[in-house]
Amino acid sequence: MATKPKKKQARGGKAAGAAAKPKAAGRRAGTAKAGAKGRASAKSKPKAKKAPARAGAAARGKSKGLDLRGLWPNFTVGDLEQSIRLYVDGLGFKVEERWEHGGKLTGVTLDSGGFGLGLSQDDWAKGRDRVKGVGFRVYAETGQELDALAERVRAHGFEAEGPKKETWGGTTVTVTDPDGFKLTFHGKMS
Predict the structure, then answer these.
(1) What is the domain extent for residue 121?
(2) Number of domains in the chain
(3) What's this model's pTM, rounded to 2 decimal places?
(4) Which of 4, 80, 89, 138 is the residue whose CA sits 20 to 30 A from 56?
(5) How far is 73 from 98, CA to CA, in rounded Å?
(6) Averaged pLDDT in 10-residue chunks for the chain of 190 residues
């Protein structure tokens, strides 16, 4: 004996088909009956724009991925006081937090326009000959004039390379800190 196929269930648990259509049609009709005032207010509301998809979004599928609110690298340095002089006096960062242990300064958190950087005094547990800064570079964009930035760094006794015009069209200044960490600033020329 053959059985009849069951009707698919619509939202709300009702069978799909004729019984479900009048409700949907009624909703559309109710919207249309809202009148000119309802249509005018609906048109005057700005529509939310969807952010453009970034490269690789299709490959990730529905995964949201990482959702950062900030990023603060931390450099382990050999001479914390000397590094603070470069980053604060030479580059213009502000000390946001100071970390002390046993009354001795062990680190700082620096800030510039909401972007942070940490400096921590090396405890030498991995040896005094440990190489730092190799194979690592921070790129930063600035609104200030690069020639003034380079001059400020040099005036405080540190080296700055540039400003120089890059092959890709931008202008940069590169500062190498006392431990070999490189910071390349991209910005404008005066």
Answers:
(1) 74-188
(2) 1
(3) 0.63
(4) 138
(5) 16
(6) 51 46 42 43 47 51 79 93 97 96 96 94 90 89 93 96 92 95 84
